[in-house]
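task queued by scheduler; priority normal; single chain, no ligands, no partner chains; default sampling; output format set to structure tokens
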Amino acid sequence: MTRLLSIGILLLLLGAACAPAAPTPAASTTPQGERPAANQVLRVGRLSLPPSLSPESSFNAFFDPLYDTLTVLGPKFTPIPAAAEKWEYVDDAWRFTLRDGLTFWNGQKVTVEDVIFSVELVANTAHPSKLNLPLMNGAYKVDDRTVAITSRTRDGMLPNGAHGIYIFPKDYYERLGKDEFGKKPLGTGPYEPVSYDVNTGAVFRQRSTPHLFRKPTITEIHYRVIPDLAQQVVGLRVGELDLVPVSTFSAEQVQQMKNAGLQIQLYDNASIMNGLFSQPEAERRNSPLRDKRVRQALNYAVDKESMVNILYKDQAVMATQLTVPGTPSYDETNKGYPYNPALAKRLLAEAGYPNGFKLPMGIGFTAATIPPDVPTIIQAGLREIGVEAQVNAYEYGFLLDKYYGRNNQEKDDIFLQSSGDANGTFSVPRGLYTCEKEGAARWWCTPEFDRLWVQASQEIDPAKRNALLLQASKVLHDDVPTLLLIQRHNVTAYRPNIRLTHYPFAHMFDTIYRVE
């Protein structure tokens, strides 16, 4: 995962979200002639590990084996039961009924008080899960198995975000404190940590007592920190690694692994690479970007298909909109902006710029997250229709100053980044394209999009909410707040003797097993 996708709305990568536990494969369900191996130790390569063993340190699928959440996300981002077996909206709050018999590793039973504590930890601290639960503000006990979760306003989307409410033990956590809990955690998941070194790796082993509802086959997960993707490829090829999940291998590396007989799965729940337009700067500079026809022209001017073919091959497709397939806000009829320089020139002429213009601040990016060929291809496409834009490569920290308008830094005319949809509610794009933010924090304001999204967020009925989200997505797309580029797939690579079932978001390790 790129660093830019790891912090805040700008930096979100969808592939790190929690998700549903699929049924564990058994011998009777394996392909004919296959049998689960006696050795069920799994060796996993990762670029890095979170700084602690607590989900407070990072919103990351690394924690899925160790903890349970109230819900998980199934196909099409539908929340399904996890630690909570059911939920309903009653008296302006979501009431979650807990599974009876869920325990921590030490045998201690999960209580409503533990869940209330876990909810308030998200609501009242700088918890990474807050991004998916922006309205949640507290919880109270209904009975010994039911907790009511409240929000500042009516929040129909809370069950989707509840996949970020990790269950913590109240008394144990309060006794140790945040830092010590990160070193000596106590979770409810099917695995518990045996060893952990942020620089080298970790070992998770199945808990001594069976988990209430998650039944993995893998007995131990051995993580190895290998900060170089090329070395991860070597590790898979020579058999030192079994699996590298949800990574960003290059097209060449993917082909190398295929040629070596390794298995590849692509997931289209990855983020959308795009170029943000800054409305406040466009207005202040009296920029041509204020005209929607100009923003449309820039979209038609960029050869996204060449960008895909040159840089990513079958690992990416042209982005047609600001959300990903499978989400309620994804419009199947939207064909996006295919390369059409003639149409781009015509739109510029209609907007009063038949000879083009110059963007004074140019195209900003960081090589830490965006391949340098991407802004070069954009620059060439714009030049073809008469629009001049310099390319500005920034160090990561300075880029964040530009992005947030800190330290008196101005935003570029086009700012390259990636964003996605972590819970299927369009909440991450909404964070970028909302009218609620002012000054340097605002990117683009489309009042009708804001109105529809807020209406959707308050709708309890999923079908009505999804219809409103789709309508909001279409309204935002029509306002052209961004330069759409590509939708990149995530890659999971593994050895031929590994079997797995993986939803777009899944507790992957619950479904993996080795065959002989």
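post-processing summary
- The domain at 67-186 is CATH 3.90.76.10 (Dipeptide-binding Protein; domain 1).
- The two ends are 32 Å apart (CA to CA).
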